[in-house]
Design brief:
Elements (H helix, E strand, L loop, with lengths): L1 H23 L6 E5 L6 H17 L3 E5 L6 H9 L6 E7 L1 H4 L15 E17 L7 H10 L5 E4 L5 H13 L4 E4 L3 H9 L5 E5 H10 L2 E6 L14 H5 L7 E9 L4 H15 L2 H9 L3 E5 L1 H22 L5
Parallel strand pairs: 1-2, 1-3, 5-6, 5-7
Antiparallel strand pairs: 3-9, 4-7, 4-8, 4-9, 4-10
Helix pairs in contact: 2-10, 2-11, 6-12
């Protein structure tokens, strides 16, 4: 009997050690990074840069999948429903992540409870851009033109709850500009019509517009950062232009996993994201894309999301947006 007990204890210890070893070995297969927006925009570019670094770090495939639609809700729902095993993560952006479901009568998910925050990695300001063919060259000239031609005061936005839509509505509320929205499914589609001169202006992330600004196809009217950007020192901030000190239009980027993902795997993935964030490739990309680095761990990120959701509720009221 004593020998049987000893054998049982030994077997249990071996099984425990095997499980622990398996956990320590995470990850052992492909990791999927879901981007809830179309390819080619700022968050997609960031996800692909991280994927390249993580592949080397983890010695496992890391693939990026674009699941765009409904201002980020479709991709968010895909991740929420994924197995909480640490092999599916969403590369999210605020405000879409914190705001999109607040504009639904029946929310698809809850930003604070449907996911496990992993890491917030940085934030990028939005910029107001127009085609070089437009008859105005500055924000002030644009405002005067829109007031004189309200039928032409159109802006492009990539869906309800998107950063461009929300912040432009806030600007409209603060300035009284007669802005009319033209809605698109993605930032790339919106920029296509802005570049063609079919829509007058759009508020988009720096990475999405940078190359078009560099070539002169897009004219930069204002930046949404709290201070002027080093890359565009002569371009005023929106806060300066609308007389609203402290106004900021920016988007944070971060990684989240489905609710219920084991803390050990969340923390392990955070450690890898933290290492990747210090890699020269990521540092150089962030500088090039005007992303301000700002790493937050799971606990810090969770608090930020909670605070963002509460702020978002107030912003929606100011912008007079209603759930649909």
């Amino acid at each position: 009997m004593k020998k049987s007990v000893q054998l049982f204890v030994a077997a249990a210890a071996a099984a425990f050690a095997l499980c622990a070893g398996a956990q320590d070995a995470y990850p052992t297969k492909r990791i999927q990074l879901v981007v809830p927006f179309a390819s080619g925009n700022g968050i997609d570019q960031l996800a692909r840069e991280y994927a390249e670094v993580l592949r080397t770090e983890l010695k496992q495939p890391v693939v990026v999948e674009n699941r765009e639609g409904a201002g980020g809700i479709i991709g968010g729902t895909v991740v929420m429903r994924a197995a909480p095993d640490g092999y599916t993560a969403m590369v999210a952006a605020h405000p879409p992540f914190a705001i999109a479901t607040l504009l639904q009568k029946t929310p698809a998910f809850d930003a604070s409870s449907s996911f496990e925050p992993v890491a917030r990695v940085g934030a990028v300001p939005l910029v107001a851009v127009t085609a070089s063919s437009m008859p105005f060259k500055t924000w002030q000239e644009m405002a005067a033109y829109f007031r004189a031609h309200p039928d032409k005061a159109n802006y492009a936005a990539s869906g309800v709850g998107s950063p461009g839509q929300l912040f432009t509505q806030l600007i409209k509320a603060k300035t009284g500009l007669p802005l009319q929205e033209i809605s698109y499914k993605s930032t790339a589609q919106a920029l296509t019509d802005v570049l063609a001169g079919q829509v007058q202006v759009s508020l988009v992330s720096v990475p999405a517009a940078a190359e078009h600004i560099r070539t002169g196809a897009l004219r930069l009217l204002a930046v949404g950062s709290s201070k002027r950007l080093a890359a565009y020192p002569d371009t005023p901030t929106i806060a300066e232009l609308i007389g609203q000190p402290g106004f900021e239009a920016s988007v944070w980027y971060g990684f989240l996993m489905p609710a219920g993902t084991p803390a050990a795997r969340v923390n392990k993935f955070y450690d890898e994201i933290a290492k990747a964030s210090a890699a020269p490739r990521i540092v150089e990309f962030m500088a090039r894309a005007s992303i301000v680095p700002g790493l937050q761990n799971p606990q810090q990120f969770a608090k930020s999301i909670h605070d963002d959701v509460e702020t978002a509720r107030k912003m929606i009221q100011v912008a007079k947006l209603r759930p649909e």
